[in-house]
């Protein structure tokens, strides 16, 4: 158990819809990272927050957004969903910045029908 | 742009045999990680390699780092079925992790 909690574990929805994925980091960790894992793109970094502020941005679509709240949990919002958004979305957390080991949650499997 | 390449992408090996997975990266890195992922599961951290010549071992797995060659290896000794999984290397250069595509390892009797 990494200590990183992601909900829900599975999500099935339709094209055009909007969903929110939630992540609670390990106790004491200030950084939260979001990754997307798909068969064709592999594991891709989406976005990082550190203590409530956006720290780094990767290959995140404009339809996607995220935030980190004062209690340090984070949410990833995906809107206008397309079939290609079907993937496993991981959250990871670390104590500080990029040089700290990241601990991964169990992921949210998103299926778009 | 930092790029990370792993090979092979697929590896089927017999129990008891040895093999090596290779991870090449394109620019000087701060550190290199190896992760294991079972199907549909999370990523489990195996090793963190920080400096040139670093070698770490855990059970039948040994990882090494050559920063001059920008190469890391994950060596599997006397493979057992429980090692079947996908192994990823990931590299950071003052940036979030960049992952290789992963090596899907299947250990067969």
The helix-strand sequence of chain B is EEEEEEEEEEE
Q: Tally the beta strands of chain B.
A: 11
Helix/strand/pairing category of chain B? mainly beta
Described by the principal axes of the CA atoms, the overall outline of chain B is globular
Extended strand count of chain A: 11
Q: Describe the largest sheet of chain A.
A: 7 strands, mixed
What's the Cα radius of gyration of chain B? 13 Å
* Mean pLDDT figure of chain A: 94
Largest interface: A-B, 22 and 23 residues
Helix content of chain A: under 10%
Q: CA-to-CA gap between the ends of chain B?
A: 41 Å
The number of distinct helices of chain B, counting runs of at least 4 residues, comes to 0
Helix/strand/pairing category of chain A = mainly beta
Nutshell version of this structure?
With 113 residues, chain A is mainly beta. Chain A has no helices and 11 strands. In chain A, the strands form 2 sheets. In chain A, strands 2, 4, 5, 6, 9, 10 and 11 form a 7-stranded mixed beta sheet that branches. Chain A has a 4-stranded antiparallel beta sheet with strand order 1-3-8-7, with no helix packed on it.
Describe the structure.
Chain A is an all-beta fold and 113 residues long. Chain A has no helices and eleven strands. Chain A has strands at residues 5-7, 10-13, 19-24, 31-38, 42-50, 53-57, 64-68, 74-78, 87-94, 103-104, 108-112. In chain A, the strands form two sheets. In chain A, strands 2, 4, 5, 6, 9, 10 and 11 form a seven-stranded mixed beta sheet that branches. In chain A, a hairpin with a 5-residue loop joins β7 (64-68) and β8 (74-78). Chain A starts with a strand and ends with a strand. In chain B, strands 2, 4, 5, 9, 10 and 11 form a six-stranded mixed beta sheet that branches. Chain B has a five-stranded antiparallel beta sheet with strand order 1-3-8-7-6, with no helix packed on it. Chain B is globular and about 40 Å long. The mean pLDDT of chain B is 93.
């Amino acid at each position: 158990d990494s200590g990183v909690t992601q909900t829900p574990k599975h999500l099935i929805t339709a094209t055009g819809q909007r969903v929110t994925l939630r992540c609670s980091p390990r106790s004491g960790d200030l950084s939260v990272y979001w990754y997307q894992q798909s068969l064709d793109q592999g594991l891709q970094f989406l976005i990082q927050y550190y203590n409530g502020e956006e720290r780094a941005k990767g290959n995140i679509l404009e339809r996607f957004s995220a935030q980190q709240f004062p209690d340090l949990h984070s949410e990833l919002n995906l809107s206008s969903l397309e079939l290609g958004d079907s993937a496993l979305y991981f959250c990871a957390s670390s104590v500080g910045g990029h040089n700290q080991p990241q601990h991964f949650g169990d992921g949210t499997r998103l299926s778009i029908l | 742009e930092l790029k990370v390449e792993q090979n092979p992408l697929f590896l089927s090996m017999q129990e008891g045999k040895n093999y090596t997975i290779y991870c090449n990266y394109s620019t000087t890195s701060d550190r290199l990680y190896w992760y294991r992922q079972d199907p549909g599961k999370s990523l489990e951290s195996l090793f963190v390699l920080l400096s040139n010549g670093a070698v770490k071992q855990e059970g039948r797995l040994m990882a090494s780092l050559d920063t001059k060659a920008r190469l890391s290896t994950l060596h599997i000794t006397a493979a057992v079925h429980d090692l079947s999984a996908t192994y990823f290397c990931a590299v950071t250069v003052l940036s979030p992790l960049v992952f290789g595509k992963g090596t899907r390892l299947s250990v067969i009797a």
